[in-house]
Amino acid sequence: MVTPTTEPLHALYRQHILSVEQCTPPLLEALFAQAQAFARRIEAGQSTTVLDGAVVANLFYEASTRTDLSFQAAVQRLGGRIITTAGGVHYSSVTKGESLPDTVKTIACYADAIVIRHPLQGAAREAADASDALGLTLGRAVPIINAGDGIGEHPTQALLDLYTIKDRFGPRLDGLTIGFTGDLRNGRTVHSLIKLLAIDGDQVRLICMAPEALAMPHEYVQFARSRGIEVAETDDLLTVIGDLDVLYVTRVQKERFVSQHLEDLALRAFGTHLDYLDTETQRALRPVAEIHAAREYERASASYIIDEMIMRLAKPDMILMHPLPRVTEIPADIDQDARAYYFRQVQNGLFIRMALMAAVLRRQG
Ligand code: NCD
To answer: Is 96 designated active site?
Structure first.
């Protein structure tokens, strides 16, 4: 077997990691090989000190368990250190009205990299611009790692997802059928994963299964199709479940519904974006948006539940994936099924983030 070279990892050194669009097939191969090497070291009980002396800041404006803690664990297992505001951003100067760029510029003075999660799409880009602007004055821009920006992207989750699929099916995925279900409209993990599969370039077949209100945004379907990947769309899981090699389930993103309904109401009632309305009017629209959102959530969350009956219709060697947290979409008794792969994803998240942070912070080779 030819060992992939670590050279493509040089491309990540001191770079912001904002989107999977920064990836190339050789880079993915090198990153996955590195992740596997770290996995072996951990299994063998060996420690590493590649990030000795490095300080990374986690800046999370949204709830997180896996992403936050796996970045912390990854950096610490590499011998680096993590800093965060005690009690999360709610105890930082954000509550005093500090802007995102100012917060980022401040933290960039203390840390070698900043891992950011934010409810607004584009926030990671804004943080990167702030870091670059400070870099012009201080002579050194601090890399920003996107750990989820609203309904935009979640690149490190997609990396660990693809790594998990390849770990199970081998490095080439040609001929596999991969299904996505749940909230494909608001789920940033599937947005990044569909793009990453297309960039990786193997001839997979994708099936997006969601009710119309939660359908995969056209731009992602287009992205995959423009790279020669076949994408089918349906709202009927039962007719396709038997064809799938991978079923990737997502949570219905309840927290995104209210803001979307607010935006829709503003457009319908006033013909303008919510941001252009005064605070009084925005506040008045909220109860109506909440009622609409609750109704839609009830309907959507009951749409696809992967229970034993559905699993009986699936291939015996299909794998069932979920970025977690799950709510009702996969009942806990499915965890015993050998096809349940979501906790392997969790474990692989550590190895992938170790490989990524090592490449961003230390010149390889
Ligand atoms: C996801 C996220 O935050 O986008 N979780 C994760 O990072 N593993 C999925 C979700 O919140 O549903």
So the answer is: yes
